Amino acid sequence: MTRSSAGQSRWTDEMLDELANSVSGVKDSVSELRESVSELRELVSELRESVSELRESVSDIKDSVEGVRLTAQALLQIAAQQQRENEARRAEIAEMRQRQEESDKRFEVLLSEVRHLIRQLKPENQS
């Protein structure tokens, strides 16, 4: 701006051109900023979608983990029950073996007595 003799400011063509260029630059910057804001909004929207999908996945995983936990717990209970049953069977088998050994011993004693009686009867029959 230049000052006239009366003290009033006057715009020169060059100054007006610079102002127009500045305004045009500001308009371009505002336009670019609007585009950036629009792109940012789209990215935020996509991010929200991704977060929502992630939450669903996490929820599904939690459900799966709970299912695995329940299955593992059931399997542990089954294994413990089978272990108890196996121990009971082992005890039964040991008891049966013990009884069989005792029975075999009694049989051997009886067999020995029968043999002894047979030997005693043979000499009497032979005479």
Characterise this structure.
With 127 residues, this protein is mainly α. 90% of the residues lie in helices and 3% in strands. It is built from one helix and two strands. The protein has one helix at 13-126; strands spanning 2-3, 9-10. A two-stranded antiparallel ribbon has the order 1-2. The longest helix has 114 residues, at 13-126. The model has no long low-confidence stretch (mean pLDDT 90).
Instruction: Tell me about the largest β-sheet.
Output: 2 strands, antiparallel
Query: What fraction of the residues are assigned to beta strands by DSSP?
Result: under 5%
Number of strands: 2
The mean pLDDT is 90
Q: How far apart are the first and last residues' alpha carbons, in Å? A: 165 Å
User: What does the overall shape look like?
Assistant: rod-shaped
Q: Using the CA coordinates, give the radius of gyration.
A: 53 Å
Structural class: mainly alpha
Poorly predicted segments: none
Order of helices and strands: EEH
Strand order of the largest sheet: 1-2
Helical content, roughly? Answer: over 70%
Total of DSSP H or I helical runs spanning 4+ residues: 1
